[in-house]
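ligand=adenosine-5'-diphosphate
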Amino acid sequence: QQVSTDMKTLTKQIGRFAENKKLEIETLKIRENYRKEFIGNVSHELKTPLFTVQGYILTLLDGAMKDKSVRKKYLKRANKGVERLIYIVKDLDMISKLEVGGLQLQKERFNIIKLIQNVFDLLEMKAAKKKINLIFDIDYKSTGPIEVYADQERIQQVVTNLIVNSIKYGKNNGSIEVSVEDLIKNKVIVRVTDNGEGIEAQHINRVFERFYRVDKSGSRKEGGSGLGLSIVKHILEAHSEKIYVESQYGVGSEFSFTMEKAK
Ligand code: ADP
């Protein structure tokens, strides 16, 4: 009797062990595929600007160097390519830090109104190039500060990425509205609304994926690495906050996120 009970327990244990191993192998396989896909995406993203830079250098070596004005023009273009490479590498660096959880948040109390105003000032020129109006939905001078508790530098990146996207995918002469509103339970919600090209329903849940871009060729013309929204999502997740998107194709998009109010 005792032997058969022991055998049963042992068989159960072996079964459980095998099940666990199977799960482990599945997880490893998923991770391995993820890694392969990531490397594929990275090399693809780096290839275009690298070939552009090489193209200008080769043309210069081939004789274009002699002409002073051509030389300057090509060097400037090559530099643009290098700038783009730096931009992509910086984004990659950020994403890898965020994904391995190696990014320590430096939470502090700050005025979100001031931060948004600061981002507006930094992006004013970029918006003006497309005659896009940046509108702050609240009269920040009379409202007074809205204090939140978060990592200021990272939240500045979130706001910047969202507004940069609204400019990139915005229409000429369009507008971008940013608002900050009180929510229940000590939270505020920041909304970035544009009247740009909008996102088709089948793409909407995928825009936060790494390297995901709705229109591959079109977006590339606009620059960017396809990592902007993925970085935004990671930063907010690290804060245990959420990002929401609503969009209507051809009409515009609204990205919003929550933040903890300072006590
Ligand atoms: P990138 O802008 O570098 O391509 P993102 O991760 O920031 O990468 O965005 C992913 C994709 O989501 C973009 O390529 C674009 O297709 C879409 N998208 C993001 N923001 C907007 C927006 N405000 N309006 C329309 N499409 C957007």
